[in-house]
Amino acid sequence: MPSAYHIDDFAGFLKEEKRVSSNTLVSYLRDINQFCVWAAENGFSDASRIDRNAVENYFRHLKGYGKSSATLSRCAASLKCYFDFLLSRKIIGANPAVKLSLDKHSRRLPQILTNREVETFLEQPDVNDAKGIRDKAMLELLYATGIRVTELISLNYSDVNLSAGLIDCRNGDKERVIPMYSVAVKSLRDYLDNVRPMMIAESNEAALFVNVNGSRMSRQGFWKIVKTYQKKADIKKDITPHTLRHSFAAHLLENGADIHAIQEMLGHADISSTQIYTKVVRKQLKDVYNKAHPRA
Prior knowledge:
The protein has 296 residues and is mostly helical. It has 13 helices and three strands. 58% of the residues lie in helices and 5% in strands. Strand 1 and strand 2 form a beta hairpin.
């Protein structure tokens, strides 16, 4: 790829200045590399020649290949970040992707649980059973902090500060400290005091959450746990580990939390990723209004 597209400089910016996670870095660079290949093939010899029409043509090209709404939304975020970088370095005079608007339905709003559904779901583990105590701690922690499932299973015993009610969450080079509500702290203390010592295979096991074999819980293992309790709770919505993350963010916003604080807790590099929850809350309010108002 010609250096005129400044991809190496952009990669350095993402790693050293924005300090994005390794997953975000790979995702952004993949999107930008694919876009720049297309741009070069379509006569744009360097980044400064790319205009808004070119960006819109690229998205028509992606849609023509049947790319999903999620892929289009992620690519739009990648391009906006890339052109913001070029603008900050005075390589371009304006961001050609800044007013990029995808179709109204190009990005589905994330599904969230109601407060009652969350309560019902979190009540399902049997806390008279060792596995139930562990599962209760995992689910409460996930909803308390909004961390990703990969971050949850990557937590180590040393990342928990029960007395302060905090966890230390790492994602690549980024680190954030997230508070927990009291029920999550209590559930975690119950697991750490009464269950984990019996479940770990080795006394020096670092993992916070372990499976029945005493080793670190896997994504697949936790996915099965979530599906088991969804069935027990008889909740018709399709619950995934990410559903609790979405619900965490939407419920905080609904109750007046600052969106930048939510962004920090979620570990979003871009505020636009967090702003989607504003739309979720607005839609919920509209749905409530339409169902409850006598003249709606």
